[in-house]
Amino acid sequence: MQTRIMAGAAVIGALWLGGCATEDYVNKHVAVVQTQVTDEQTQQQAQGQRIEQLDQNTKDAMARAEAAGKLAEGKFLYAMVLSDDSVKFPLDSAQLSDEAQSRLSDFITKLTSDNKNVYVEIQGLGDYLPKYAGNLDIMTAAAVRTAELFAERMAS
User: Is the CA virtual torsion 51, 56, 61, 65 positive or negative?
Assistant: First the structure.
């Protein structure tokens, strides 16, 4: 009877040990799965970073669009008007005086130091004396010269 019990225990033990995986087998298969998990985590982190960058780009673009929309609607964040007649052109000329250039340069410095999107409108009165068709040309040239001054100073 004892022999039968021992034989039965040996058969059960053999079956039980035969069903266990070896350490090498487990390590080999787990390593494959672990590599796949690591790759997925790396891809997920990269996608998360791309999404964060796109989110920031979207926020920046929206802020620029809102600023452009305010400019297009004429809703300025601030207004600065040179209305004291300090910027004048001589009669029958489109050349800015030194004083006018200095005044405009100060205005341009203010705009560039604020570092905001701006809309600049150049307005003025024309000479109607003497009456001739060239006055329109002179007024246009004066406005163009003022715009050129802005472009030159803003670019430098």
Answer: positive
